[in-house]
Amino acid sequence: MKKILIANRGEIALRIIRACKELGIKTVAVYSEADADSLHVRFADDAVCIGPGPSRESYLNIPRLISAAEVTNAEAIHPGYGFLAENAHFAEVCASCNLKFIGPTPEMITAMGDKSFAKDTMRKAGVPTIPGSDGLLHDVKAAAAIAAEIGFPVIIKATAGGGGRGMRVVREASELENSFRQAQGEAEAAFGNQAVYMEKYFEHPRHIEVQLIGDMHGNIFALGERECSIQRKHQKLIEESPSPAITPELRQRMCDAAVKGARSVNYVNAGTIEFLFQDGDFYFMEMNTRIQVEHPVTETVFGLDLVKEQIRVARGERLDNINPNFKMRGHAMECRINAEDPDSDFRPSPGLIKSFHVPGGPGIRVDTHAYAGYKIPPYYDSLIAKLISRGKTRAEAIERMERALEEFIIEGIKTTIPFHQKVMADHDFQSGRLDTKYVEHFFKRLKMETQTGLAA
Ligand code: MV4
C-alpha cells in the first residue's frame, strides 16, 4: 500500500496523514471549496478539490471520491469518522473499484447498522443484552405483551437508528399505542424504515465502550474501556480511560464479552462495542464499525497508534506479530474543544480564529486542524481540537487537564473550554460520579447556584 486517499477533513484527516507519514505511505487529501485553506490540504502529498457545491455534500460524493482516488493512483481509502465511515454502499463501491476500504467489510457495516439484528447477533454470541423484544416489534399487541412482561418504563428504538436517533421512552401502558405508532412514523420519515424494537428503559446508565481491533487472521484484541457518559444531546464532550466505575474483574468480563461478540462476526479492523452500564451490570447497546473521535484516550493508556494498526491490518498484517501484549498504563482523558457557546445552549460559533495558542508540557496531546487566522466554516461539526491529558492516576490526568485548559488560548470565537474547566473543578466529576444525565444535572445545579447567588 503506497498511497491512501483520506475521505475526510478536519483533525481526523490530519491524524490519518500523520499515521501514513510514519508508515512511509503517501496521502491524498480531498477538500470542498470551503476547506481550501485547511491544513489537511497542505500536509497531504496530493490534494483534489471535490467541491464545488454545498459543502457537506462534497465529502459524501462517492463518484468524485472514487475519481479522485483513480486520478491520483491511490490504492486505499481511509474514511475517518462521520461522513462515509459507516456507509456499506461506499465500502462496496471501493471494493468494486479495486480500492481497499480501511475498515470492516460492507457485510459487517450492514449487519451492525441494523441495531436489532446487531443485538440478536450479540445475544446469540453470549454477550449480555438488555431485556426486551428479542427482535422487531410487529404490532401494538406484541409491544403491549413485551412491555407487560419486562415492566415500564420501556424504550422503543428504530432498528435503522442508533447514536440516540429514533428513540422513544414509554412510561405507562396508556401511552404505549401512541408512542409505538409515533416511533414507527418517525423511523419511517427519518430512515425510510419503520422497524422498531423494545427494551427495558434504564434511567441512569453510564455509557462505557470497549475498543476492539481485529486482523484478517482471526486475531481480535480488546483495548480496555472508555467512559463516555459526559454527553449532551448524544454528542460526547469528555471521555476517559479507564472508567472510574470499572474494576479489573469487570474490565476482564466486559473485554471478554466484546471479543466474543466481535469474534462471532469475524470482525476486522477497528471497532467499538458500546455498553450500557448500570448497578454493576453491563449490556450490549450498539457496535460502531469505525475509528472513533475518542480513540486517542485508548492510544494514550495503551501506548499504541490505532490508525497505524488500522492500516496494518488492512494490509493483511497479523496483530499478534505487531503487539502480542497490549497493556493499560495510567489514566487518560479527552476534552472536546468545540466552536460552541456553552453559555447559550452550545450554539455553534463558527468564524475567524484571531489567536490560537496550543497547550503543551508533560502529559498533554492536542489533535487539531485549527490555527490563528483559520476561519471555521459553518457547514461541518464544531470540533476544533481534542485536548488529551495523561497521568499516572486519574487525579493527575485531571490536574494536567486543568493546567492545559488554562493555557489554551482561542480568541475570536466561543469554545467549550469554560465548560470543561467547570467540570474539571466539579466534585461529582472528581469523585467519578458520572452517568448519562451528568451534563443535564450539571446545568441544573449551575442555574440553582446562580439563582441562590442572586437572592443572597
Ligand atoms: C438506552 C437508554 C436507556 N435504556 N437504552 C442513546 C444512544 C443509543 N446508543 C442508545 N441510547 C440509550 N439507550 C435503554 N434500554 C439510554 C440511552 C441514552 C444514552 C445512552 C448513552 C449515552 C447517552 C445517552 C443519553 C440518553 C439516552
Quick rundown:
The chain is about 35% helix and about 25% strand. The protein folds into three domains: about 5-100, 3-Layer(aba) Sandwich (Rossmann fold); about 130-200, ATP-grasp fold, A domain (Dna Ligase, domain 1); about 205-445, ATP-grasp fold, B domain (D-amino Acid Aminotransferase, Chain A, domain 1, 2-Layer Sandwich), CATH 3.30.470.
Q: How is the topology of this model organized?
A:
Elements: E1 3-6, H1 10-23, E2 26-31, H2 39-43, E3 46-49, H3 55-58, H4 62-71, E4 76-78, H5 88-96, E5 100-101, H6 106-113, H7 115-124, H8 140-150, E6 154-162, E7 165-170, H9 176-191, E8 196-200, E9 206-214, E10 220-232, E11 235-241, H10 248-264, E12 269-278, E13 281-288, H11 295-302, H12 306-314, H13 319-322, E14 331-338, E15 340-341, E16 347-348, E17 351-352, E18 355-357, E19 364-368, E20 375-376, E21 383-391, H14 394-407, E22 409-411, H15 417-424, H16 427-430, H17 438-455
Parallel strand pairs: 1-2, 1-4, 2-3, 4-5
Antiparallel strand pairs: 6-7, 6-8, 9-10, 9-12, 10-11, 11-14, 12-13, 14-21, 15-16, 17-20, 18-22, 19-21
Biggest β-sheet: strands ordered side by side in the sheet? 13-12-9-10-11-14-21-19
Helicity range of the residues?
25-40%
CATH homologous superfamily annotation of the largest domain? ATP-grasp fold, B domain
Small molecules held by this entry: ligand MV4
* Number of strand elements: 22
| Broad CATH class of the largest domain | Alpha Beta
Class of secondary structure makeup: alpha+beta
Shape: globular
**Second-tier CATH architecture of the largest domain:** 2-Layer Sandwich
* Major sheet summary line: 8 strands, antiparallel
Average pLDDT figure: 96
- Tell me the β content: 25-35%
Number of helices: 17
The domain count comes to 3
